[in-house]
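Record pair follows.
FIRST:
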Amino acid sequence: MFSKGQIIFGIIFFVIFAIIIGYTYRKDLKLHKRFYAGSIWILIAFIGFILLISAIKFLL
């Protein structure tokens, strides 16, 4: 399926990518708090909408 080199590359890539994403998130944390303060309610509404659609599909 995958060679040993491809698996090692994938693991190293994932670790480095996660570190870079974490670093940039920490760097921009003040901006995130300022511009995306109410975004949690959008996420909750979106998840609720998906659950509602799933419930309707299950019941019908």
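SECOND:
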Amino acid sequence: MTKVVVIGAGQAGLSLVAKLRSKGFGGEITLIGEEPVPPYQRPPLSKGYLLGDMALDRLYLRPESYFEEHQIDLRLGQPVDAIDVEAKTVRLGEDEVPYDHLALTTGSVPRRLPAEIGGKLGGVHTVRTLADIDAMSPGVAEGRRVLIIGGGYIGLEAAAVCAKKGMQVTLVEMADRILQRVACPETSDFFRNLHRANGVDIREGVGLDQLTGEAQVSGAILSDGTELALDMAIIGVGITPATGLADIAGLALENGIKVNAQGRSSDASIWAAGDCASFPYHGVRIRLESVQNAIDQAECVAENILGAEKDYVPAPWFWSDQYDTKLQIAGLNSGYDTVVTRRGEDGAISFWYYRGDTLLAVDAINEARAFMVGKRLLAMGKSPDKNLVADGNTDLKALLKL
């Protein structure tokens, strides 16, 4: 009987094993998770869950009964020690689990501050796991002072929650502007203004020199010499692919676990999907950090384990919720040279990224129609005239028929 082992019980891991069963796979499936809880949603952790608007059981992607009903051997709280590619086994302490196909859906890990600048002090938190949020939650309270390091989406979403909780929020971003790595200046401007309107002190072009305190963080010294008194700090300076097991096993790495278009690694019996995997896309190698990619790529890998020989062709999209504002992103903006602004009703706005006359991506802010039309245009390979996009009188749906 064919044995499939999946390491990483997050969104990608669950999507992979669920797809195997829904496609009629009758072999053995083992899903191994390092965390002691069943697969859960990560995006609501730093939003609804931290705010107290979402109960723990609503985070779970499936009830625990699902795994028994579908004959999935779910092993939780069990970090994998090693992969023996010759013997085709996975070692968990004293136990060895054999596999015919192994899938790595190990996700990513947050970047942390070095201990020498205060990264190990109490009250210094990252935003990644359920345990991270549970540890942070008691300190998120009205009147307390928090420093957020990093002006990407992780940092901005944390800032929004802390501000809504009545905290005194300072956010520092070492780059010239927030969201510099991932968005155009227009999107940065919108969210800078939004956060400042909600009382967040945003400081750009400013980094962190040192967190101070004895056992617990009590202050910070910024790169411009400013000293702040603090009750807690949140680190939002990005994530890195979790490739430790793959590296020890000798798999090829390139900004993650290097896989081909079908999700197969340099070892023919080992696959990878989700945040940890880099794959070919339009002549370059990319790695996508999104729920959509975790699901779609993992499902594609499941089909290929069953022999489909299907290339993964993503249609990237992302989202971010901050206060009552929803940002929806379609496409990848890498290489853009022009941004077209389109204004909608009630403050809705969208930014359309072009390279030459080719549409690359759309940032839609409280503008679901622009997001949906932009996503469909990208899927169809259509690039509407920039002047038509900018004209608020243009019916967006009409762009699909041009």
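COMMENT: Residues 101 and 268 are 9 Å apart (CA to CA).
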